[in-house]
Amino acid sequence: MSELAWRRRWKSNIEAEPWQPLQIDGNEFLIKTHFERENYKILISDFVDLWHEEADKDAVVKRSKVIEWFLIVFSIER
């Protein structure tokens, strides 16, 4: 397969994404993300454990409605 043909067929995925350093409250992590049109994947490691999250469009919409509800409740209680 030629390089041009390979480039045309290649699809990006989380494995192809680089690890990036992330510091939260003095703790060191590595994070890797991959976003597509209708889903995302996130990997976070503290060099001991690995956390993974992925969601499709429906899950993101559902989560946004829950967050919106919490924001409404929180703003009413102020």
Walk me through the structure.
The chain has 78 residues and is α+β, with helices and mostly antiparallel strands. Helix content is 36%, strand content 36%. The protein contains two helices and four strands. It has a four-stranded antiparallel β-sheet. β3 and β4 form a beta hairpin. The longest helix has 21 residues. 0% of the residues are buried.
Features of the shown structure:
single chain, 78 residues, alpha+beta, 4-stranded antiparallel beta sheet, 36% helix, 36% strand
Name the structural class: alpha+beta
Distance between the termini: 63 Å
Low-confidence stretches: none
Radius of gyration, in Å, reads 18 Å
How would you describe the oligomerization state of the chains in this entry?
single chain
Largest sheet, in brief, is: 4 strands, antiparallel
What is the average of the pLDDT values? 88
Q: Could you state the order of secondary-structure elements as H and E?
A: HEEEEH
- Helical proportion, percent range: 25-40%
Number of helices: 2
Q: Strands of the largest sheet, in order across it? A: 1-2-3-4
Shape verdict: flat
Number of extended strands: 4
Proportion of residues in extended strands: 35-45%
Could you give a quick summary of the protein structure above?
The chain has 78 residues and is an alpha+beta fold. Helix content is 36%, strand content 36%.
SSE arrangement:
Elements: H1 3-9, E1 20-24, E2 27-35, E3 39-45, E4 50-56, H2 57-77
